[in-house]
Every structure is written in C-alpha cells, then in structure tokens.
Write a structure and sequence with these properties.
452 residues; Pdz3 Domain; six-stranded mixed beta sheet; five-stranded antiparallel beta sheet; 12 helices
C-alpha cells in the first residue's frame, strides 16, 4: 500500500507539473501573438496584395506590365492618406524639381483635392490660367475629355501640362454660377517671377511674393534694397502681398520671415518621427528697420505664405489684412526612390510661434477686407459734385494775403519729393489701397502722438 500510494502521488504530481507548464506555455504564446498581431496583419495584407497582383497578371483580359501595377497600387495607397501625399513617377519627380526653380510648361494653376473634387488653390500671377480668369476655389470638373472625379493630383497636373502653344479645355464650377463653364487655355512656358516690388507712394513700398522658390529670399533682399534706393532713404511702411501665393519651400518662408523678426521662434513642426520635430528660429543681425507692415492674404494664400503671415502676426510685427487663408498646415517630405521616382509624404504639421495649427484653419486676418475691384468710373464721380472752385468769381487762395504769414524763402526753395504714380492695377485694387491707407494713418498718428 505504501509503494502504491507513493506511485499515485508521483503520477498526480507529474500531471500537475505538465498542466502548469502547459498553462505557462499558453500564456506566453498568447502574449507573443498579441504583440505580433500588428505584424501578422501586415504580413496577411501583403500576402493579399501579392495574391491580387498574381490574379491580375494571370487572368486580366490584357497583359499588364508589373511596374504599372506597382505604380498604380502605390498611387492608390498614398491617395488614401491625405490630399497632399502622392507618388511621383520618374517623369513627374523630375518635373517637381524643375517647379522649384520657377520654370515649366503648363497653365499656372496650384491645385488640391477638396471633398473629393479637384480644386484650385490659386492661379499663379501672369500665367494663362490667371489671364483667363481662373480663381481660387474654382472646382475643375473636367480636363479636356476626362472627368476629374477620383483623378489624383499628379495625373491632373500631367494632363494640364504640355508644350507651349497647345491648348487644353477646363470645365469649371464656381460659386455663383448656375452651371459649369468651359475655359480654353493655351499652354505657355510658366516663368514664375517670385518677387515683384514698387513704391506705392512716397516712403511706402509694395512687395508681392507669388511663390516661395529657391531664390525667393535672395530676390526679396534685392527688392527691399531697390525700394530704399528709389525712396532715397528708409521706408515709412511696407505692404507685403501674399494673396494667391500657394506656398513652396519651407526654408524660403523662414528666411523671408527672418527679414522682419528680430529674434525668437518663426515656425515649428510636429510629427511622429524624431526628424519631423523641428524648430526654426530667427537669426541675429541683418534685419529690416522696424517700419510698420501690412500683410495681405486671402483664400489662395497657403502653406509657406501662411507660415510667414502667422509668424509676423504672432510676433506683432505686422497687421494681417484680407480674408481667411487656405489652411494648408502640413509638411510634405520628398523622398527619392531607387528607380528615380519619388514620394511626397505628409510627415508633420506646422505650428505658428504661439502654438496655433494652420491645418484646415488657416490664418485669420486682424482686419477683414473683402476683395473689391474699384471701377474706373469712380475716379470720375467727383465731376458730379459742385465745389467752391467751380463757383463764378470765387476767390483764389493765392490772391489773399495772410497778415500772420511770415515769409520763409528757404521753405519755398525746399524741394518736394516727386509724386509717385501708382500702377493702375494696384490703384484699382481695393485691398492694396486699404493697406496703404492704414500705413499712412499709422504714420500720421505717430507724428501726432498719443493724446494728453
């Protein structure tokens, strides 16, 4: 009995040990499965992808090139992420690099996909699209005979680009139109002049940045220097026009803002990877004098132009005037691939110095001023008003002597600055004229001083 009892005890003990080992093994296996669940699903998805590709290669009605399938799959993958991530074939990637240098063949339209519809961010100044009357917010429903629904940006760009002199028909839907309208545009070599400038009035400068390219910072420096030389001294104020500026290179936006910001943060980015978390600070020295600035923005101002406007607004270095900007606050990283193709991948979001996200919000102007064309007839309206000088036998001020007036021959000889003739396009631009009025008022108030 003694031996039998011991044997039974040993069997029970062995059974318990086996069960315990099995429980531990099952527990460990379960944990491993949980931790590898993501990887497992990735592998299953890749297996699904290869299965589908094999079926297409074997059974599709026509023979299909493998690279075409791969490119199509990558296109679809990136298009499912956001409107700005995209795959670039070798030809498209090459064109993208040309774009940043400011010369390409096409229409001159910056586009995005909004609510599944190909939408104009802004036409580029002095291009076929701009001259034809294409506007920010226009929806492109059709390019020639191809409807744009589900057409990705790269394909749309490819269809709109082409040799100089060739034409393309865009079907446009716009707010206020009862039905779509067709525009026939003739392609041209798009030579984008990044920076334009001129004096608006004695002491007041105007700088227009159309797009942020490789030499924008350099061109801006030349423009500001030229304005000061033309003015024969420091400016009293500046209108910085960023309307319909679709953006461009981040480093150029930072350098442009750096001209006017003494020190501190200009913009920072936040993303998942360590490399996507960056801060861009103003450098010391080489700044513009602290004259007042009015920055003009509108719904066509996007990305880099929003970075500049947001930085100047947060640092209280400028008054922002116009209408709400576009709201493209995401960072696209260009990643070259082995076959000379490339990825444009959204890797981070921009934030202004005060921590505001631009994405889908944009920059809100300090003073909202809607776009309004000043009709030329408005200049003639004064003809309808009767003034003292129009009355018969009116006195001329020069004929009446002021007894309290002291002669000052020096003042008479003092040269007055020649009047600046404002360009007709700017003179009829309501927002620019409002900005100039604000700068002039600022100058007058500064002279008057605060009330005592």
């Amino acid at each position: 009995m003694f031996r039998t009892g011991n044997k039974k005890k040993r069997v029970v003990a062995g059974f318990v040990l086996v069960v315990a080992v099995l429980v531990i093994f099952i527990s460990i296996s379960s944990q491993q499965r949980c931790s590898a669940e993501g990887k497992g699903s990735d592998y299953e998805s890749i297996e699904l992808f290869t299965d589908v590709m094999a079926i297409i290669k074997k059974s599709y009605v026509e023979e299909v090139d493998t690279k075409k399938l791969i490119y199509g799959a990558i296109n679809g993958m990136l298009a499912s992420l956001d409107p700005h991530s995209s795959f670039m074939t070798p030809d498209t990637y090459k064109e993208m690099k040309i774009d940043t240098k400011g010369a390409f063949g096409g229409l001159g339209i910056e586009i995005t996909v909004k609510d599944g519809i190909l939408t104009v961010i802004s036409p580029i100044e002095d291009t076929p699209a701009y001259k034809a009357g294409i506007k920010a917010g226009d929806q492109i429903l059709k390019i020639d005979d191809r409807f744009t629904k589900d057409l990705n940006i790269n394909d749309a760009v490819k269809r709109m680009r082409g040799q100089k002199g060739t034409s393309v028909v865009l079907m446009i839907m716009r707010e206020g139109l009862d039905k779509p309208k067709e525009y026939t545009l003739v392609r041209d070599i798009i030579q984008i002049k990044s920076v334009r400038s001129r004096l608006l009035d004695n002491g007041f400068g105007y700088v227009r940045i159309a797009q942020f390219q490789e030499k924008t910072d350099e061109d801006l420096s030349k423009a500001l220097k030229s304005l000061q030389e033309e003015n024969k001294g420091a400016l009293s104020g500046l209108v910085l026009d960023l309307r319909n500026d679709p953006g461009g290179l981040l480093d150029q936006a930072v350098r442009v803002a750096d001209h006017f910001i003494e020190d501190g943060l200009i913009v920072y980015t936040e993303g998942r990877e360590k490399d996507s978390k960056m801060q861009f600070m103003a450098k010391k020295g080489g700044k513009e004098p602290s004259y007042p600035i009015v920055v003009l923005i509108n719904g066509g101002s996007a990305s880099a132009s929003e970075i500049v406007a947001g930085a100047l607004q947060d640092h209280k270095r400028a008054i922002i005037m116009g209408t709400q900007s576009f709201g493209k606050g995401s960072v696209q990283t260009i990643i070259p691939l082995s076959d000379d193709s490339g990825l444009r991948l959204t890797t981070a979001l921009y934030y202004t110095p005060s921590g505001r996200s631009i994405q889908a919000k944009g920059i809100t102007p300090d003073i909202v001023v809607e776009r309004l064309e000043i009709p030329k007839e408005a200049e003639k309206k004064d003809l309808l008003h009767l003034r003292e000088k129009d009355l018969e036998n009116h006195f001329e001020s020069g004929n009446i002597e002021d007894p309290n007036k002291k002669e000052d021959k020096k003042d008479e000889k003092k040269e007055k600055p020649a009047a600046i003739k404002i360009d007709d396009n700017l003179k009829n631009d309501y927002q620019v004229m409002r900005a100039l009025d604000l700068l002039k008022g600022w100058e007058i108030l500064k002279k008057i001083g605060a009330p005592k």
